[in-house]
Amino acid sequence: MLVLRGKDARLWLSSVSEAYRPDLLCVALKGGEHNLPGVLDKPDRQGTTAWLCQGTHCLPPIHDLKQLNLDNSPHFAANCTL
């Protein structure tokens, strides 16, 4: 699962969606949402942040879209849609 949170979450989602990744669920949150379940309950931060998660375990947050390189991560193949 890829959790995107922040004002540019949809832009990041669009970038991630350029490649076919059938095994990744993507969730884009604009920020300000409350009472989210488990893995979606990520802190609001200045800017946009991404978290790559498997089950309830998430990798450290990614704050730069250029660093979000799913193609080199064998654990996260994805299909994200807007």
List keywords for this structure.
82 residues; 1 helix; single chain; 10% helix; four-stranded mixed sheet; mainly beta
Radius of gyration (CA) equals: 12 Å
Please state how the strands of the largest beta sheet are arranged side by side.
2-1-3-4
Q: From the helix content, strand content and strand pairing, which structural class follows?
A: mainly beta
Report the helical percentage: under 10%
Q: Number of domains in the coordinates?
A: 1
Sheet-strand content, in percent, reads: 15-25%
Number of strands: 4
Low-confidence segments: 74-79
Largest sheet: 4 strands, mixed
Tally of individual helices: 1
Polypeptide structure, described:
The protein is mainly beta and 82 residues long. The protein has one domain (2-72). Helices cover 10% and strands 20% of the residues. The chain has one helix spanning 9-16; strands at 2-5, 26-29, 49-54, 57-58. It has a 4-stranded mixed β-sheet with strand order 2-1-3-4, covered by helices on one side. β3 (49-54) and β4 (57-58) form a beta hairpin. The chain is globular and about 30 Å long.
Chart the SSEs and their pairings.
Blueprint: E1 2-5, H1 9-16, E2 26-29, E3 49-54, E4 57-58
Parallel strand pairs: 1-2
Antiparallel strand pairs: 1-3, 3-4
Sum this structure up briefly.
The protein is mainly beta and 82 residues long. It is built from one helix and four strands.
